[in-house]
## 1
Amino acid sequence: MKVDPEQVSTPPDGAPLSTQPQWRQDFPIDVGQDNYVERREFTKFLVLTSGAFVVGQLWIAGKAIEAREGSAVPSQKIADLADIPVGGSLIFRYPVQDEPCILLRPQAETLIAYSQKCTHLSCAVVPEPQHNRLHCPCHEGNFDIATGKPLSGPPRRPLPRIHVELRGQEIWATGVEARTV
Ligand code: FES
């Protein structure tokens, strides 16, 4: 009778099963099959982890593009132009109530807005126009008023920029640009 090779177990030392200890005869392990399954499992593991890595990278890339182009949030009126004097600032909330932002008017024709949350640990930054900076009192962080980029202290990332535009005499927020550099 022809023996199905799939049904034959090969002990680790290759000796006949009849010479193996009783426990191995009762529970034979086919070394070849065992290695084959391990290779197959390992290949499956590699494919799955590689796939997860690719999906993760695509998600990060998508988020980076979204952040660079400004996330799609609805426009919102911040204030009338007359509400903010030249050299002054104004706190507003955008795009939701728990997101404080700061609008600055360093010159008559220049409006700049940032998230008010420090990029270190989210304390509120305050303008110091005499030093051309936004100051975070929590750990003495400073940001450039013109760019929102960190100048000194613990923060390493710029403040998210709020896109603003003038519609007649009204100032509107039109988007949020999260930045990494
Ligand atoms: S929270 Fe702003 S410097 Fe630490």
## 2
Amino acid sequence: MNQSPSETTPALELVELSKHFGNVVAVDRISLRVEQGEFFSLLGPSGCGKSTTLRMIAGFEEPTSGRLLLDGQEGSRLPPFKRNTNLVFQSYALFPHMTVRDNVAYGPRRARLSRTEVASRVEDALRTVRMWEYADRLPKALSGGQRQRVALARGLVNHPAVLLLDEPLGALDLKLRREMQIELKEIQRRVGISFVYVTHDQEEALTLSDRIAVMNGGRVEQLGTPEEIYNRPTTRFCADFIGEANLIEVRVGDRSGDGRVSVVLPGGGTALVGSVSPSSADSATATLVLRPSRVALDDKEPPHGAERAAIPVEVRRVIFQGSVVRVDLEGPEGVSLSASTSEADTSDLRVGRRMWAHWAPGETHLVEPTKSGTP
Ligand SMILES: Nc1ncnc2c1ncn2[C@@H]1O[C@H](COP(=O)(O)OP(=O)(O)OP(=O)(O)O)[C@@H](O)[C@H]1O
Ligand SMILES: [Mg+2]
């Protein structure tokens, strides 16, 4: 895993943390650390164990095994209110009969802070989320985005060391969601506390996070910065889940020499690859990951040599998607792949046209093949 040792105590550390519900293994020996002030996301498909992980950190769920350290202290046995964490949900969970101010004041009042301290914290939190002007409104008189801001203020007002957010923007429409993403990131930077953010939206995770743990089936498949995860996926699942990917089953050719690996493409051509993940280390077949945005199309076969890898293809479909045009292609041995282009003029891309798809070998990655084996 890609974690550099740090001098400071991490805000949160999970060590082999698991949660079983009867026969269901919801979380399966997760280990990770979240640094002070880091925006850390748990990203994965529905049911992969994101919320369960978050609920264990918050103290609403007891781990079956493993350890959980908050600011270096053993935290697994602490009740939720004794933890320096706060959980923000997708559904806002505001009290409908209370004003915005009272909603935000609820936590500090329960913690028996002085009136002046409560008042100053509430104002501070509401100003942080730009909702101070709405302090006397009821939640029903607010828009979705405004309610979400109040929910965020409720999380911030207790001054947690770690703020836990479970799909907090899930109920918002796409445009508002994008606006709130930027705002959320700015607020996080300003207050400087660690965020652990749960989402199944890969674009959201890429936009917001300092680092991302990609989860699948209760386990962390890859952990790294957005760039690392997008540019160097280490498993087939990650390549497919994050961004668009062509996954081409190939035979692994030459592994010798200077450490560069070449593969045999459908149709028999060979190509170097950019990186080789441990998951494909010693296998005879593997999956070549090639982003559609990296695929160029040409009438002529590019000259042989190390600069471009190429396969002959036939255009199957041309799909206008707004800012890009996606071209679905069929290559030798029934392989299908997509190219996406932002070229304005794609009128010459007719269905049935024979072309060459080519790419820079350094931009491809080798991960494990499909379970069924040979390409
Ligand atoms: N209280 C429970 N009892 C039994 N099984 C549970 C319980 N809570 C969660 N699970 C199971 O644990 C697994 C992980 O659930 P979890 O809610 O953590 O997933 P998630 O990644 O948050 O998914 P989503 O994106 O749909 O919210 C699922 O298979 C779920 O059915
Ligand atoms: Mg969930």
